Amino acid sequence: MAKYFDVHPDNPQPRTIGQVADSIRDGALVVYPTDSCFALGCRLGSRDGIDRIRSIRHLDDRHHFTLVCRDFAQLGQFVHVDKDVFRAIKASTPGSYTFILPATREVPRKLLHPKKKTVGVRIPDHVVAQALLAELGEPLLSSTLLLPGEEEPMTQGWEIKERLDHVVDAVVDSGDCGTEPTTVVDFSSGEPEIVRKGAGDTSRFE
């Protein structure tokens, strides 16, 4: 059974955030809120976590996983960013965007797109997600919590707990965080290509 953590949306309880971070360090797969919708998250190097996310969402090896980072300095450890791309991404973060970029050697091979050697990165504009990232001290390997055959993500923590009770280890609930996933922008060629229109304004990349 998954543990259920009820977290204040504006002032997340440090003790609770610490418990969630400890469980992630111990290999837990958690559901947590972001500024677009709920996401599945685990520790960066967790092979079991990756396999469980693939299983829950029925993903193939071409799926871009996302490294959810606390800030730009952390993001820069995991992807290559040139000057022009740096400015564009810097102006859009934190926010509801996922950027696809060439990965550095810090990223486990299993997370990379098999041909492009790219990975998704993002910096969320969400108090609870930021508190968790700060406590964890490293990015969360994440994927939107969108179940196979469903058009929209679930929005209620208690419903997620009921549906996924035996396939995740914890659910972090700070209230409804919407159904629209991030806008995905692929910068792997140096020029922005909008892969998915979502919660983030696309006009700056068009």
- How large is the share of residues in beta strands? 15-25%
Query: Order of strands side by side in the largest beta sheet?
Result: 1-8-2-3-7-4-6-5-9-10
Strand element count:
10
> Could you state the order of secondary-structure elements as H and E?
EHEEHEHHEEHEHEEE
* Average pLDDT metric: 93
Structural class assignment: alpha/beta
Number of helices: 6
Contiguous runs where pLDDT drops below 50 for at least 5 residues: none
Outline: globular
Helix content: 25-40%
Rg estimate, integer Å: 16 Å
Distance between the termini: 45 Å
Largest sheet: 10 strands, mixed
Write the layout of secondary structure elements.
Elements: E1 3-6, H1 14-25, E2 30-32, E3 39-43, H2 47-57, E4 66-68, H3 72-75, H4 83-90, E5 97-102, E6 118-122, H5 127-136, E7 140-144, H6 157-164, E8 170-173, E9 183-186, E10 193-196
Comma- or semicolon-separated keywords:
206 residues, alpha/beta, 26% helix, SUA5_domain
